[in-house]
Amino acid sequence: MDPLGLVNLSKLMNLTRGTPEISIGLIDGPVVVSHPDLVGESIREIHGKDSGACAIASSTACMHGTFVAGILSARRGSGAPAICPDCTLLVRPIYAEATHVESLPIATSQELAAALIECIGSGAGIINLSGALAHPSSKGEHDLEEALDHAARRGVILVAAAGNQGAVGGSAITRHPWVIPVIACDAGGRPINNSNLGSSIGRRGLSAPGRNITSLGVEGKLRTSGGTSAAAPYVTGSIALLWSLFPNASAAEVKLAVTQAHTARRNTIVPPLLDAWKSYQVMKASAES
To answer: Do residues 69 and 38 touch, judged by C-beta distance below 8 A?
Structure first.
């Protein structure tokens, strides 16, 4: 089954392309903002210490950021999932560009905390987190915890890739009660082997497509990749579409509709599969009651 169909996103995408009032903070690598399938008024750069645009298109950070941006904000019909192109995408790079790096660069907890605060201050209602963190110091862990708490107080929904180390456990991010951790699954809805799992991930997280995902590459080409970083924006995009359709809903209501569309009690380290259409039905029933 195609990725959008697997999580019942196609029907939701037929109802809306999103709205500019819904802003998504993308904390990732920089993005080729001049890509022909991304150019538009919906993308803004939050500079932080670096520009949101790519300086080295061939860098791993740039390819990763552009790929994730395409899942969310590409032009419909581009070959990328293009879930919510009319929502505002706030690009906040956290990974420095470097050539000849095979894996995504690593950021510190303090850098992630600063990026979270900047995205919230710039008006993000949803934030998509992906990538690797360096081993945190006690100071870094405290700063990150404070930033995650700040997001919860402000009603900013956090969606985070659970990681691709094949580990059982959690991190300061996936353990936080306000975060929605996301693992990657294959075309049959089965978790891929290298997705991190854990009790907090199983209780509060979701599974989404993360194998053989096609999105935007650099230099105008498409690229196929996967992992939890590819899965997370399916959840982020679903939330953005729901909030576009139900703008008066609170963050807690939207978050609950997405994560609790499955009513069965969770007692496993493997989270359920995202069901975007069922989440819409939950929101619609609540709005009509």
So the answer is: yes
Q: Between these two residues, 221 and 205, which has the higher pLDDT value?
A: 205
Q: In this structure, are strands 88-93 and 23-28 parallel, antiparallel, or unpaired? A: parallel
Q: What is the pLDDT of residues 77-88, one digit of tens each?
A: 999 999 999 999
Q: Residue 33: what pLDDT?
A: 87
- What residue spans define the domains of the chain? 3-288
Q: What is the pLDDT of residues 131-158, one digit of tens each?
A: 766 665 556 688 999 999 999 999 999 9
Gap between the Cα atoms of 111 and 105, Å rounded: 13
Cβ density class 160-170: b for 16+ within 10 Å, e for less: bbbbbeeeeeb
Weakest mean pLDDT among 115-129, 138-152, 252-266, 273-287 = 252-266
pLDDT at 49 over 60: no
Take residue 188 and report the two structure tokens written for it.
């049959």
Contacts of 252 (CB under 8 A, 6+ apart): 155
Question: What residues contact residue 177 under an 8 Å CB cut-off, 6+ apart?
Answer: 152, 204
Residues in the chain: 289
Class of domain 3-288 as given by CATH: alpha beta
| CA–CA separation, 3 and 5 (whole Å) | 5
Contact in structure between 23 and 125 (CB atoms under 8 Å): yes
Burial annotation 36-63 (CB, 10 A radius, 16+ → b, else e): ebbeeebbebbebebebbbeebebbbbb
Pairing of strands 222-225, 213-216: antiparallel
- Here the tokens at position 28 are 């990732």
DSSP 98-157: -SS--SPPEE-HHHHHHHHHHHHHTT-SEEEE-SEEPPPPHHHHHHHHHHHHHHHHHT-E
